[in-house]
C-alpha cells in the first residue's frame, strides 16, 4: 500500500501509549446517542413535568453503563458526586419541593466541580499523549464524560425545582469547549506518489490522544486519488484532476476519537 512508508515515518515521531496496552476510554458506543438525546429533550422544551420524566427515564436506561464509566474518573470528589446523582435521579420526581431544590443545587455544584477540574487540567499539544509528564489528557477524557452525565441531570433537576439554568448552561458550554480543545485529535495530511504513475494519493489521518499503533486503536485515515498528466514529476506544477471524492475529514476525526469524550462534547455543544 502506498501509505505504508509515510505511516511508518509518522509513527516514529508521534508518541504512543506505552506498553501497547489500550487505555480506559469513554464508552461512546453506548453513551453518545443517549446523552445527545437527553440534551435534545431539554433543548426542545415542553411541559416541565414531561421533560423531566423523559430525562429521568433516559438516565435510568443508561445507568449501568454510566456508573461503569464514572468508576474511571480519577478525581474522587467528582466521581462520588456524579455517581450519587446518576443513582439518585430516579427519586427526583418524588422529592418534596424544598428537597428537590436542594438536590438540584447539589447537582449543579457537582457540575461546577467537574468543570473546575476540566479548566485547570494542563495538557500538551495534540500530537502528544498523557504518557508525557504533566499532560492531563487521560484525566480530561473521563471528566468530559462525567460533566455530560451530571450536567443534563442538573438541568432537569433545576427545571423540576423551578430554578433557572442559564448559568449552568454557560458553565456546560465552557466545560465542553475545554474538552474539545484539550483532547482534540492530531490530524495530518500528505501526498503519496508512486514511481512511473500519473496517479497519487492525498492522505488524511487523525490520531486520538490515546491512540495505539499496534492495535490501530484511535487511528483513522482515508485518501483521495488525484491524477496528473503523464510524465509530470511530483515537484512540477501540473494540472491535477480528482480521481475519487474528497476525504470526509469530519468522519475521520470522529472515527479516531469515537472512544473518547471529545465526540460527546462535539455532539452536545450545539444543543446548549
List keywords for this structure.
2 domains; Secreted protein; single chain; 10 helices; 272 residues
Distance between the termini: 44 Å
- How can the largest sheet be summarized? 4 strands, antiparallel
Helix content: 40-55%
State the total count of DSSP E strands. 4
Give the overall shape.
Answer: elongated
Number of separate domains = 2
Tally of individual helices: 10
State the order of secondary-structure elements, H for helix, E for strand: HHHHHHHHEEEEHH
Q: Widest sheet: strand order?
A: 1-2-3-4
Structural class: alpha+beta
Q: C-alpha Rg, in Å?
A: 22 Å
Mean pLDDT: 87
Low-confidence stretches: 1-26
User: What is the beta-strand fraction?
Assistant: 5-15%
Protein name: Secreted protein
Q: What can be said about this structure in brief?
A:
The chain is an alpha+beta fold and 272 residues long.
Tell me what the structure shows:
The chain is an alpha+beta fold and 272 residues long. The chain folds into two domains: 4-15 and 186-256, no CATH class; 25-184 and 258-271. Helix content is 53%, strand content 13%. It has helices at 4-13, 28-44, 48-61, 63-70, 76-88, 97-120, 137-161, 166-182, 249-257, 261-268; strands spanning 186-193, 199-212, 217-227, 241-242. Strands 1-2-3-4 form a four-stranded antiparallel beta sheet. A hairpin with a 4-residue loop joins strand 2 and strand 3. Helix 4 (63-70) packs antiparallel against helix 5 (76-88). The longest helix is centred in the middle third of the chain and has 25 residues, at 137-161. The chain starts with a helix and ends with a helix. The relative contact order is 0.16. Residues 1-26 have low confidence and may be disordered. This is Secreted protein.
Amino acid at each position: 500500500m502506498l501509505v505504508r512508508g509515510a505511516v511508518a515515518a509518522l509513527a516514529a515521531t508521534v508518541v504512543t501509549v506505552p506498553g501497547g496496552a489500550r487505555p480506559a476510554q469513554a464508552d461512546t458506543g453506548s453513551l453518545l446517542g443517549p446523552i445527545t438525546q437527553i440534551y435534545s429533550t431539554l433543548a426542545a422544551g415542553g411541559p416541565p413535568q414531561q421533560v423531566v420524566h423523559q430525562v429521568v427515564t433516559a438516565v435510568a436506561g443508561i445507568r449501568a453503563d454510566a456508573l461503569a464509566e464514572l468508576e474511571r474518573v480519577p478525581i474522587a470528589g467528582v466521581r462520588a458526586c456524579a455517581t450519587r446523582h446518576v443513582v439518585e435521579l430516579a427519586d427526583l420526581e418524588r422529592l418534596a419541593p424544598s428537597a428537590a431544590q436542594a438536590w438540584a443545587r447539589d447537582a449543579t455544584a457537582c457540575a461546577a466541580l467537574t468543570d473546575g477540574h476540566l479548566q485547570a487540567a494542563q495538557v500538551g499539544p495534540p500530537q502528544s499523549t498523557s504518557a508525557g509528564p504533566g499532560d492531563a489528557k487521560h484525566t480530561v477524557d473521563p471528566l468530559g464524560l462525567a460533566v455530560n452525565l451530571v450536567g443534563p441531570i442538573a438541568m432537569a433537576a433545576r427545571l423540576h425545582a423551578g430554578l433557572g439554568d442559564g448559568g449552568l448552561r454557560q458553565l456546560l458550554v465552557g466545560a465542553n469547549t475545554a474538552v474539545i480543545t484539550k483532547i482534540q485529535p492530531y490530524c495530518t495530511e500528505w501526498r503519496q506518489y508512486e514511481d512511473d504513475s500519473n496517479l497519487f494519493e492525498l492522505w488524511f489521518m487523525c490520531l486520538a490522544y490515546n491512540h495505539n499503533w499496534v492495535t490501530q486503536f484511535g487511528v483513522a485515515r482515508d485518501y483521495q486519488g488525484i491524477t496528473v498528466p503523464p510524465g509530470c514529476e511530483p515537484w512540477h506544477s501540473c494540472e491535477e484532476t480528482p480521481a475519487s471524492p474528497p476525504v470526509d475529514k469530519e468522519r475521520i476525526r470522529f472515527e479516531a476519537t469515537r472512544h473518547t469524550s471529545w465526540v460527546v462534547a462535539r455532539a452536545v455543544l450545539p444543543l446548549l
